[in-house]
Specification:
Oligomer: single chain
Distance between the termini: 33 Å
CATH superfamily of the largest domain: Divalent-metal-dependent TIM barrel enzymes
Number of helices: 12
Structural class: alpha/beta
Radius of gyration: 23 Å
CATH architecture of the largest domain: Alpha-Beta Barrel
Helix content: 40-55%
């Protein structure tokens, strides 16, 4: 039997009012949400027709949800933890992004990320966690079939200092020692990619000499990472004018000079939007050396749809180009939430649903 015409009228009316959202999964029931309040779930497999009783229950529940919303005059929020279909791309949240919904425990947060459709994680602070927690995170990722994204090779603390550009043996030795530690961290948490930032300009040296110093240190680091199949990704930044690595063409050139599969470009789209713009053009120009992407809308460095960047189009371009070249990328969500609390976490999920390819 088919759905009656009045059912479609109710559904269409609520959709137009913005009171109804559908979450679709090819393997799970059809969930519906009215005014951000989950009011029920139809235990009906996709493409099956609804029988008469199911149609009546569905319509009744939709009208009840709409009435509650209209009478309350405010949002009635629930935990956004109904299992949802995986996102099409490997967006990687970080710990703390959903702690209002999932709690403080990082393993609970990781499981929550999986339930709402994310299939990757990144954690800049992984090296600062205990070995036991690193291993527990890695084991949980494996059980959930999720990918570990970047963590930072933390040989310097923020705000960064003049380090690798100086040619200082002390800084190089410190960097390489931290790279060796990072190998062990990567083993415990099942990581492949690690973020490296070469520090600030050395203003007393010509730019070419500074660049050569950086290249030499990175080549030495590749000797550490290559035997383990690990990749350091160089992140060009926009935070202060003192930072040495700033642009996509500069980072591309350094990766070419290092000439190793263990040294690639972390294309942080928020930083690159601030420093140079032309995101899709510069992705195309540096594609061969890109190993990882990060996300953040500008201004504000929050989730997609909150700023000037057309992330739906950018994601589509990355996906098409990756498929054509047989590559697969993690896209790290290195940004904040535009709204605090559970409301903001739900808004972030909705933003990624709207921007996904």
């Amino acid at each position: 039997m088919i759905i009656f015409e009045y059912d479609f009228k109710i559904i269409t009316h609520l959709l137009n009012l913005g009171w109804l959202m559908f979450y679709y999964s090819p393997t799970k029931p059809l969930y519906y949400q009215a005014e951000n309040m989950y009011i029920g779930a139809l235990n009906i497999q996709p493409f099956n027709y609804l029988n008469t009783m199911q149609r009546r229950d569905f319509a009744k529940n939709l009208m009840v949800g709409a009435s509650v919303s209209a009478l309350s005059g405010s949002l009635v929020h629930a935990q956004p933890n109904i299992p949802q279909a995986p996102f099409k791309l490997k967006y990687a949240p970080h710990f703390g992004m959903f702690e209002n919904s999932a709690g403080k425990d990082p393993i609970d947060q990781l499981k929550f990320m999986h339930e709402i459709g994310f299939r990757a994680l990144e954690d800049n602070g992984m090296m600062g966690k205990s070995p036991e927690l690193q291993k527990k995170i890695g084991d949980t990722l494996s059980k959930l079939d999720m990918t570990m994204g970047v963590f930072v090779v933390n040989f310097d603390n923020w705000p960064l200092k003049t380090s690798l550009t100086s040619g200082s043996k002390e800084w190089r030795d410190k960097f390489l020692a931290t790279c060796k530690e990072a190998v062990e961290v990567a083993k415990r948490c099942n990581a492949k990619w690690m973020t490296v930032v070469p520090g600030n300009f050395e203003r007393n040296l010509p730019i070419g000499i500074q660049t050569a110093h950086v290249i030499e240190s990175l080549r030495r680091a590749c000797d550490i990472f290559e035997p383990h199949g690990l990749v350091m990704v160089l992140e060009a930044l926009s935070d202060t004018p003192d930072l040495f690595l700033r642009n996509s063409d500069q980072t591309f050139m350094i990766c070419k000079a290092v000439n190793s599969p263990s040294c690639k470009f972390l294309f942080d789209m928020w930083h690159m939007q601030r420093n140079e713009g032309h995101i899709i053009y510069n992705i195309n120009q540096t594609w061969d050396e890109i190993g990882y992407f990060q996300i953040g809308d500008e201004p504000g460095r929050n989730e997609p749809t909150t700023g000037e960047m057309n992330y739906k189009n950018i994601f589509k371009h990355i996906n098409e180009k990756a498929k054509a070249s047989g590559r697969d990328f993690v896209l790290g969500m290195e940004h904040g939430n535009s709204i605090k609390g559970k409301d903001g976490e739900l808004k972030l999920i909705e933003a990624y649903r709207a921007s996904d390819i």
